[in-house]
Amino acid sequence: MQTENLSAATRRWADQGLSVEVLGRHQMFAAVRGDGPALLMIHGFPTSSHDYREMIARLSPDFRCIAPDMLGYGLSDKPIAFSYSLFQQSDAIEQLLHHLGVDRAHVVSHDVGTSVHAELLARQLEDHLSFEILTSSFLNGSLIKGMAKLTPIQKLLEAPANLGEAVVVCENIAPDFVPLLKGLMKRADSLSDEDCAVMEELLLYQDGNRRIPGVYSYVRERYLHQDRWLSALERTTSPVQFIWAQDDPVAVKEMGEALAERVPGAAYNRLPGVGHFVPIEAPDEVATLVRSFITA
């Protein structure tokens, strides 16, 4: 991880974590803070573990918070010749936890991270996950892909015929990146000017903006493996809760309700007045619900 050319604010964030080699040759960054039971936090697209910074501050007094940047995001490597499969991302997270000596963990996930989370649950059911998932907290994520309300840029990225245009858009997206994210929020004032600058810098690290079309290829897997991942949610024997923002324009409230119906044993928590970026917009509410769920 090369940090010498980063701003002081981004270096301060990098100093909260470490970098581990995964999948043979790629460096994966993870913010690691606190002591106690391990709490794995899996971020969403197209941001990074930085989304969890306020939750980490609230939970690290009682938990060992581990928030990795998936490959292609944040301060992790963003290779050109890489598929960015969610199965590879799951492998990398397993290797990270093994390196950290974690054999049991509570898991929180958001957005695309919910699919990685579900894959880890599927592996646990198949008895070949390298650690034990103790509890699962799912924040807004399009696990039922057909119910998602896509943004214009998501529609552009999903259509193969538009890939050339998508590449050009992503090459020039930096000035619009944070404003686009804010457009999906109800509490955009949760982001300080420094937060916005760090988020843009994390996007641009190792030309991450140019990797967006490749990283977004995960969406095809969400269609192909939806039954596997929903089945894992339905069949897991470890406790599950959903924490669902009611004003998310992408992973809409109806999707959260449908998931709760499919997993009747799960706890379901509604967050009114919160948009898509739940960990950023509602860190107090989410941290409280996660803590209560884990310690119940």
In a few lines, what is going on in this structure?
By secondary structure, the chain is an alpha/beta fold.
What features would you highlight for this structure?
296 residues; alpha/beta; Rossmann fold; 8 strands; globular
Topology:
Layout: H1 8-14, E1 17-22, E2 26-33, E3 38-42, H2 53-59, E4 64-68, H3 86-99, E5 104-109, H4 113-125, E6 132-139, H5 152-158, H6 163-171, H7 174-182, H8 193-204, H9 208-215, H10 218-224, H11 226-235, E7 240-245, H12 253-262, E8 267-271, H13 278-281, H14 283-295
Parallel strand pairs: 3-4, 3-5, 5-6, 6-7, 7-8
Antiparallel strand pairs: 1-2, 2-4
Helix pairs in contact: 2-14, 3-4, 4-11, 6-9, 7-8
Outline the structure in words.
The protein is of the alpha/beta class. It has one domain: Rossmann fold (3-Layer(aba) Sandwich). 44% of the residues lie in helices and 17% in strands. It has helices at residues 8-14, 53-59, 86-99, 113-125, 152-158, 163-171, 174-182, 193-204, 208-215, 218-224, 226-235, 253-262, 278-281, 283-295, and strands spanning 17-22, 26-33, 38-42, 64-68, 104-109, 132-139, 240-245, 267-271. It has an eight-stranded mixed beta sheet with strand order 1-2-4-3-5-6-7-8, with helices on both faces. Strand 1 and strand 2 form a beta hairpin. Helix 3 (86-99) crosses helix 4 and helix 4 (113-125) packs across helix 11 (226-235). The radius of gyration is 17 Å and the shape is globular. The relative contact order is 0.16. The mean pLDDT is 97.
